[in-house]
Amino acid sequence: MGKKRDSSGAVTRGDVDLSKYEALDGEWRKVGLAAPARRALVDAKLYKVSDLRKISLIELTELHGMGKSAIARLVNLMDAKKIRFR
Predict the structure, then answer these.
(1) How far are the Cα atoms of 36, 82, 86 from residue 22, in angstroms, in the given order?
(2) I want to staple 28 with a disulfide (CB 3.0 to 4.6 A). Which of 18, 33, 57, 71 is the partner?
(3) Cα(68)–Cα(84) distance, rounded to whole angstroms?
(4) 42: which residues sit within 8 A by CB, 6+ positions away?
(5) pLDDT digit string (tens) for 4-61?
(6) Do the Cβ atoms of 18 and 24 come closer than 8 Å?
(7) Count H helices, E strands: the chain?
(8) Domain boundaries, the chain
(9) Would you tell me how many other CB atoms lie within 10 Å of the CB of residue 46?
């Protein structure tokens, strides 16, 4: 499925407005997370590494789009910043 533009010119993929994510997933993009993981974090209102202390590891693993690689990368980032899950 390719990218489309809606009537306002925003890039969409099916019914999802991707511009919403592009405005909010900057930190996740910088650390190299895949798009499904970035969207899952933004949908959960988690916009930066320090926001991950609001949830548990179990909650993170249950987010739709969050794969093993993304979880491992996030855990490593949290360890480096001495941040712990709830």
Answers:
(1) 12, 27, 27
(2) 33
(3) 18
(4) 20, 21, 24, 25, 28
(5) 555 555 555 566 778 889 989 999 999 999 999 999 999 999 999 999 999 999 999 9
(6) no
(7) 5, 3
(8) 4-80
(9) 22
Q: Which residue has the tokens 């650390």?
A: 31
Phi, psi of 13 (to 5 degrees): -130, 100
Cα gap 85→58, rounded to integer Å? 9
CB atoms under 10 Å from CB of 4, counted, come to 11
Coil/strand/helix, residue 17: strand
Residues 12, 28, 23: CA angle, nearest 5 degrees: 45
CB within 8 Å of 26: residues ≥ 6 apart: none
Scanning the structure block, which residue is given the tokens 């405005």?
A: 23
The pair of three-digit structure tokens given for residue 43, joined into one six-digit string: 């949908």
**How many of the other CB atoms lie within 10 Å of CB of 45?**
10
Asked if residues 46 and 54 have their Cβ atoms less than 8 Å apart, the reply is yes
